[in-house]
Structures are given as structure tokens and as C-alpha cells.
Amino acid sequence: MKSFYCSFIFLLFSFYVQGQEDNRFTTGFSETISSKILGENREILIHIPKSNGGNKIKDRGNYPVIYLLDGAENFNSVVSITEHMEESSLCPPMIVVGIVNSNRMSDLTTGTDKDMPKQFLGNGEKFMSFVEKELIPHINSNYPTTTYKTFIGHSVGGLTVINTLLHNPDLFNSYVCLDGALWWNNAKIVKEATTNLTTNNYQGKTLFMAMANRLERGIDTLSVQKDTSENTDLIRANLKFIKELQKAQRNQLRYRYKFYEDDNHPSVRLIGEYDALRFIFDFYKLKIYDSELENPNFRLDSLLVTHYSKVSKQMGYVVKPAESQVNNFGYQMMAGKQFKKAESLFKLNIINNPNSGNCYDSIGDFYLGTGNKAKAIESFKKALTLKDIPESKAKLEKLLNNKN
């Protein structure tokens, strides 16, 4: 029994050492923060969405932020997931901040555990004070952020996520615990959940929990709850926490948990990260049927307004459809000779992006395609007052020459 636990503790200690190769920088860049709270410099890894050109200039957009524990190990995978989901219109473009630990077990635990050295004492409270009072303000001051924040942790990182959910729930909007080490310190966090989950109001908060298959042959998630061995401490602690979630249904926490039968403790991270973000942002995807696109009487602009109004409510701030998304729909409707729908979409884009030369160029194309030369000239002129677009200039000159 103890041999398993010694191996597991070694895994937790050595987890930080893994992933220190330079390939962690391929999806972002690093920065060092001087922390007064921790009394040391801390490295963070940062990814800015490709839709922002990887640039931190604030006037190009504002993005939700994912704060990722064990950043050196998990950074690349989470960035890849967010970029894929954004491209598939499954989530908004997001900034990812990976936090690199100098002493992982000290950062991500509080108190101690019976299998730790007597002199060990976790400094999780101090670490989370750094996150709340120094890291998050730094990111908000220097990068194009919104108010929506997600917190992701694996193993003892998952323990930190749940500890924050219980004791400082307003720090983040959504929480992701991946095979969390909730057994730590005699499962103290599970005991605290019996009170905190019922007394806290979690309206607008989301939790996703992933559990790996650590079970012996012939044991399932029901029968393991009767076990008392140390080998099953982790999954039993997670299952007990889930029971507390189920008891506290009035706290308005939106949550989901999943048992991954074919994944172990390390491998559950990738699939758990993906499933978590799919669940957190399940409201984001715009569903349009081909029959609606083909129906000339269907108000596509109204659908967009309604959908993004709902998205805004979930995110806690105004979210508008991407300029490129509306533009693409507009040209698609033009190609299908649904001119009324096309015009309404191009006009919606101008309402949402009044300073975009591209939007005026697009509606200029619409007027040009429908034979309204006067409106086309007006639109191309307006586009050029906002941005020097060679295509707009060429189209305008051709119209003016033909006019004369």
C-alpha cells in the first residue's frame, strides 16, 4: 500500500520537472512577474488568440482568460484546444495564462498530509493570494481581457481549484478539477464541502470534474465507495465530493462530472480539458439549419442578435457576433440571391462595428451587386475615411469614371 503512495507522492513532486523543454513556448511566450507576496520572481506562459494576431494590443479585442495550474505541463494542450474550439465556433477566443510553479506541492496544497515529511506545510493560501492580488491584476492591466475567468487544475492543482471554489468562489467564473487530489490532508476539502456548498451562492458559476480510472479489475465506481484502502483514496474523495454537490442543489452551481474508464491519472488531462471547455461554453455555439439559410423569409440577423444576447448573459458582458462571421453570412446570402437577408446582415455588421472600413466596403459590394451605384459610391467613400483599403479605392474609382 505504502509503495503505491510513495510512488504517487513522487509523481506529484516530479510533475513540475516534466514539461520544462523549450517546446512549451511554441504556442505563446513567457513573462516574469516579481511577487511581493511570494517574495520571488514567478514565470508565467501567455497565449494571445490567433484572432488577435497573437498581439496584446488592447484595442484589437478583449478576451476571457484561462488561468492554468501546472502551466509548463498543460500550456500547449489547452492552447491547442481553445484555438481549435474557436475555429469551430465552439467558444470565444481566449487568453491562456499558464502558471509555472517553483515548488509545486507547496503552492498547490494547504496544511500537510500523513504521508508527507513532518516539517512540510503547504502554502496554498499565499500562492492563491499571489494569483488574486498580483497575477490577475497584472494580466488585466497589460492584456486585452474581459471579466470572465476560468481556473483549471490537475491532481493537486485540482485540489487548489476546489479549495478556491469553496473559499473564494467569486474569483473565477468557471472551475475545472481534473482527477483532483481531494484525499489530501485526510480529505479535509470534502468535509468543508458539506458546509460551504450549501452556504455559498454559486449563481453564474460552473464546475467540471474529471475522474480517471484507477480501479482494480472487477471494481466499479459504486463498489469502490465501500473500500477503505489508500489506493482508492483519490477516487473515493472525488465521489464523496460529488455526493455533496448533489445534496446542495439549491446553491445554483452548474456542474458536471465524468468518469473516464479508459484514461489514467496523466492521460485524463487532455480529454478532460477538452470536455470541460465544451461543457463550460455549451451555450456559445450558434445553431443554424440549412433550411433557415435557404428560406428567404427567415430573419438571420434576428437569430444572431438573439443568440449573442443569450451569450452575453452567460458571459456577464456584451458579446457581439464576429465581424467576419456576419460578413460571411452576408456574402453567402448574396450568392444565393437573398438580397434582403444580405442587406440586413451587412447593416447589422455596421451597427456592431461602426468604425470598420471593411464593413462599409462589404455593404458597398452589396449595393454594387444590386445596381445601386449611388449607395455603392457612398459606402466605398465611407470605407476609405476609416481605412485605406486598396480594393475599395479601385472600386470607387471605377464607379466614378463610369459615372462621368
How would you summarize this macromolecular structure in one to three sentences?
The protein is an alpha/beta fold. It is 49% helix and 15% strand.
Backbone structural class: alpha/beta
Q: How far is the first residue's CA from the last residue's CA?
A: 91 Å
Main β-sheet description: 8 strands, mixed
Overall mean pLDDT score?
Answer: 89
- Can you list the strand order of the major beta sheet? 1-2-4-3-7-8-9-10
Provide the β-strand percentage band.
Answer: 5-15%
What helical percentage do the residues reach? Answer: 40-55%
Please count the beta strands (DSSP E, at least 2 residues each): 10
Shape: elongated
Radius of gyration: 26 Å
**Helix tally?**
15
Order of helices and strands: HEEEHEHEEHEHEHEHEHHHHHHHH
Report low-confidence residues grouped into runs of 5 or more. 1-26
Jot down its keywords:
single chain, 404 residues, alpha/beta, 8-stranded mixed beta sheet
Map the helices and strands.
Blueprint: H1 2-14, E1 29-35, E2 40-47, E3 63-68, H2 71-87, E4 95-99, H3 104-108, E5 110-111, E6 122-123, H4 124-142, E7 145-154, H5 156-167, E8 174-178, H6 184-199, E9 206-212, H7 233-247, E10 254-260, H8 268-280, H9 290-294, H10 300-315, H11 323-335, H12 339-352, H13 357-369, H14 373-386, H15 390-403
Parallel strand pairs: 3-4, 3-7, 7-8, 8-9, 9-10
Antiparallel strand pairs: 1-2, 2-4, 5-6
